[in-house]
Each structure stands twice: as structure tokens, then as C-alpha cells.
Amino acid sequence: MSWLTDWLNYLPQMASGLSVSLLIAGISILLGFPLGLGLGVLVTHRNLVLRTLALAIVEIGRGAPALVILYLFYYGLPKFGIAFESITAACLALTWNAAAYSSEIIRAGLQSVARGQHEASSALGLSGRDAFFRVVMPQGIRSAIPGLMGVAIQMFQGTSLAYAIAVPELMKTAYNIGSQDFNYLQVFTLAGICYAVISMPATWITVFFEKRLARHA
Amino acid sequence: MDAFTAVLQGLPMTLLLTFAAFAIGIVGAVPLAVGLSAQNWLVRLLCRLFVDLVRGVPIIVWLFLLKFGIQIGTFKFNPVAAAIVGLGVVSIAYLAEIYRGGLQAVPRGQGEASDALGLSRSTTFYRVMVPQAFRVVSPSIATYLTGLLKDSSIASTIIVSEMVFQSQSFARQHPTVEGILPYVFVGVLYIVLSLPVAYISRRLDARMRKAIYV
Fold it and tell me: Where does the chain cross the membrane (chain A) (predicted)?
């Protein structure tokens, strides 16, 4: 029973850590997905410079570990006089990550829209802009939804890396509690449960959406 | 070029972590994948819970649990062992899910045909299902390997001196503008290291596709 009473004592602090994790994840998703849509469109743009630039942003965001991007923002940029608070650095790094991963998923979604939809739009005399925003994008985003939910879960888990730059999120909170009374096993188990309680149902919902989408395809 | 050599010093450790964890995953995922597609619902459910739980908890939590939480008598994990075991268990869960998807992608008729031919269950599994499933999953495995390469950077948080750890300590010793270089180098190096995996995987995939369709 002592484990349970320990956990009950830890819970208020853990809850505040969890809320910071959720905040960081929320911000990086809310900023990252629209950016991802922009990058997803730009990587197929006619203009070579724009295309290359977008591709570089995507490839670095996907290819470099999130931890490296985090350090780059928090420890690297201040050397050029650009200093961020740790939580801002974490949000920016994860936003880059989210944008890079979601751009690939959104691009695949947009490309999966049947060719006939484009042709039908131009046959109806829709402008290029209308055809994209009213016909292609809604369908493309729809098929990208399970993938985007996966990225969202990945971002929530990725907030745990902000521990490394001392953001008071769930992992950092757990570490602080642990270093007070050396109950590392209890406190990290509880932290793991907190992450799992959110990630696991979210994964199940994602799988449900995937199956539903596959049925209608 | 000091920053670059500092980062390179961590390269062997990064490769060790990645390949050791990958080896654990490739082998360990086999029984779990079989469990995930078992006839018995209880076995299936338990394997599913294990996979989802391992994947639902961030890697850093697993590493800290192993490094700080586990003490049996006088036994404690050293950082490298904790990192390899942690990353290894996580790869088992991810690869099992990839294997399961591959096995499911093999048409049902293949199993039925093997039955009709009177092949034993193990022959059916190893000689008919697995080779076909492997063709489907090899690109996913390559993607996972590059993901694992990047995830090995998390070991730096439990003081394993791989590339990110090395770049971090170089940056700390050089608080000038030069201090940004190791982060840039290490980022580029991860991208460069993933290229051969992607290249080999694409060639392997192309070759196996030919083997099926010609």
C-alpha cells in the first residue's frame, strides 16, 4: 500500500508537470500542422528556390533527432544573441518536428486525391485556388487524419525530451521528486503511467480511424 | 574542425547503441509478433497490451526507470547497458507491430494453399508466410532503423557518451559562437548516416520486387 500512498502524494506535482507537457504538445501541434500543410505544398512548388528551401526544412526536421534541434534552439542560438526561455525553445523545436513530419503525411494525403477530382474542378471552371482549398485539400486532409494523429501522439511523447533543457514538464517533475527521497522506481513508474494513460487510448482511437478510413477507401 | 572531431568521438557509441538495440529488436520481436496474431484471444490481448504500453511510454522514461529505478541487491545497470536494454525493448515492441502487419498482408489463400498441400504448420509459417511477409516489411524495418539511430541520442540524458553527449560537452567548453557548430555537425551527421540505410533498403526492395513479379 505504501506505493499507492506515495503516488497519491506525488500526484499534485505530477499533474502540474503533465499540464506543462500537454501545453507544449498542444502548441507544437497547433503551430506545426498548418506549417506542415504549407511545407507539404511548397515541396512540390514550381519555384526551385522555394522547393529546395522547404525540402531542407523538412529533411532537417525529420532527419535530425528532436533532442539535437532542442539543444540547437536552447544552447546554440543564444551564441548569436538569440536567447529563448527553455519552454519557448521546447515549443519551437517540437513545432519544427511536427511541421516536418506532418508535411510528409499531408503531401501524401494530397497526392492520394484522385486525378479526376482535379480534372472535374477545372471542367467546372473552378480557379486553381478554389480547386485546391475547396476540393483537393479537404479530401487530402481527411485521408491524412490518422497519420496526423500519430504525429500528435509522437509530439506528446516528445515533450519528455524537454527534460534535458530543464523545462518543468512531467519528466523533469518526476526527476525532481525522485531526487528528493530516491523513490526513483515509484516515481518513474508513475510518470510512465501518466504518459501511457494518454498515449494508449489515443493510439487506439487512431487505429479505429485508420480502419474506418480503409473501409471507405 | 575541433567540433567535428568531438562529435566523431561519439560515433562508435552511437553505432553500438543503435545496432545492439536493433539486434535485440529483430530477434525479440519474432515471438511477440506470433503472439500478436495468435488464435488464443488472451495471448493476443496480453501481447497487444505489452506492445501498446511499451510504445505509449516515452523512451526517456524507460531509460530512467532502468538506470535509476532498478536495483536488485547490489546490481544496478550501468548507463550503456540501461540504454541498450531500454532501446532494445522499445524496438521489440515497434518491430513486432511491423512484423504483424507484414504477416497480415500475406494473402489468406497462401496459408490455405499450404494446408491443401499438406505442409506442416511450422513449414507453412517459416517457408511460406515469413518470406512473403519479409518482402512487405523490409522498407518499414529500414525506416525504423533510421528512427532508432535518432532515438539513440536520448541515451545522452543518462550520461552515455554518444554523439549528442559529445557535442553537448564540446559546446559547454566553447561558450563562443563556435559552440553552435557541434549541434550543426551532429544534426547533419544523423542525416548522412541514415542515407546508406535508405539506399540499401531501396535496392533490397527493388530486388525483391523483381523476384516476385518476374
Answer: 20-41, 53-74, 80-101, 144-165, 185-209
